[in-house]
Amino acid sequence: MPWTNQGGGPWGAGPKGPKSPWGQGPQSSGPTPPDLEDLLRRGQDRLKTILPGGHFSNFGLLLVIVAVVVIWGLSGFFRVQSEELGVVMRFGKHVRTVQPGLNYHLPYPIEAVLLPKALRVNSISVGMRVVDDPRRGGTTMRDVPEESLMLTGDENIVDVDFTVLWRIKPDGVGNYLFNIQNPEGTVKAVAESAMREVVGRSNIQPILTGARTNIENAVHELMQKTLDDYGSGVAIQQVQMQKVDPPSQVIDAFRDVQAARADLERLQNEAQTYANRVLPDARGRSTQILQNAEAYREQTVAEAKGQTARFLKIYDEYKKAPDVTRQRMYLETMERVFGGADKVILDPGAGGQGVVPYLPLNELSRRPQPQAQPQTGGNR
Which runs of consecutive H residues, i.e. helices, occur in 201-250? Predict the structure, then answer.
């Protein structure tokens, strides 16, 4: 029997309780601590009631051990949800990654599993916060100027609010869990740093107008490179610039400048349109005048050459027969001079009157055609 149940012992026992090996123990007025052997005896009694036949035999002990081993083995089943990936660790070391569904790992403490939401796209906002608005019963957007105010390359200040969409790489879940301590804070810090670097290399005018896509792409590439250098296991999906404005203190002046530049561009476009309409017309008229002058020149030169050739031909004939050629030239000239004029021929020897009768042969040859008689009815 245990020494606590004996009336005496190697050191003896007092009437009120056992003695300790070093003498009489201190008398305590508090509650007596539970008896360990009594607890074990009660557990054995309960097992006897559960076991077949009510006897705690070797078979019963084996059955209990088998049941415990089965329960311990079944504890290794786990379910991975649709947005998760299972990271199985053996004694703290990453050994494999499992896909969504029902999976199994060796029971604790041999293997354990972590379930990060690796298939979900996360969003981080920089320069703005979504806060609850009790008065409106919803949420409102609050600006965070210490994150959004940035200095451009031409030493202007611009207010940039943007959102970063990111997720965990399927093949980098281990890096995501073990290489970075605060993933969201790391992604946000890298996003703000990358945006400040890209904005610091750009002028304010392209940022406010048409260079947003280029800036988003540059920030995306810089963020991904930095996170890959960290071995973070994070993939940047997209960078979206939500608002790009000058600071609120000078936004009115910037808007006036933008309006003036818009008017300048409009007037330049109108002037260019007018020039595009007038210049082709002027070029066409100029080409037409040049072509007419060229044609007149060609015509005049050709006529002069023709007259020269004609004169040379007549001169050659004149040298052969001067009298005949002279007479012919005289007659042709008279014909050309008097051919279209009214003529009166005077002959001093014609009966004293001097006027020779003129017979208009050309007019006589133009006799009028007889007109057809109209028919007034039937035959009589």
Answer: 204-208, 212-230
Measure the CA–CA gap between 160 and 163, rounded to whole angstroms: 10
Q: Is 114 helix (H, G, I), strand (E, B) or coil?
A: strand
At 130, the amino acid letter reads V
| Unique residue bearing structure tokens 């595009």 | 276
SS3 content of the chain, % helix, strand, coil (to 5): 50, 20, 30
Question: 152 with 204: CB under 8 angstroms?
Answer: yes
Q: How far apart are CA 262 and CA 268, in angstroms?
A: 10
Q: Is the pLDDT of residue 189 over 80?
A: yes
Any idea which residue has 């055609």 for tokens?
A: 369
Distance CA 187, CA 209 (A): 27
Strands 122-126 and 157-168: antiparallel
- Extract the tokens encoding 289: 């005048």
With 0-12 / 13-18 / 19 or more C-beta atoms within 10 angstroms meaning exposed / middle / buried, residue 316 is exposed
pLDDT tens digits for range 109-144: 777 777 777 778 888 888 888 776 677 766 677 778
How far is the C-alpha of 225 from the C-alpha of 124, rounded, in Å?
Answer: 18
Closest CA to 206 of 242, 238, 158: 158
Spatial separation of the C-alpha atoms in residues 298 and 300, rounded to whole Å: 6
- Which tokens hold the place of 26? 């201190």
CA dist 203 and 154 (Å) reads 5
Cα separation, 271 vs 186, in Å, equals 53
CA-based torsion, 183, 188, 193, 195: positive or negative:
positive
CB 332 within 8 A of CB 310: no
Cis, peptide link before residue 109, omega less than 30° from 0: yes
> Which among 222, 217, 209 is positioned nearest to 239, based on CA atoms?
217
pLDDT digits (tens, 9 = 90+) for 35-46: 657 766 776 666
Tell me the pLDDT band of 102, cut-offs 50, 70 and 90.
Answer: confident
Question: Distance between CA 202 and CA 180 in Å, rounded?
Answer: 31
pTM above 0.70, yes or no: no
- Determine the Cα–Cα distance for residues 326 and 355; give it in Å rounded to an integer: 29
Contacts of 132 (CB under 8 A, 6+ apart): 138, 139, 140
Interaxial angle between packed helices 322-338 and 251-320, expressed in degrees from 0 to 180 and rounded to the nearest 10: 130
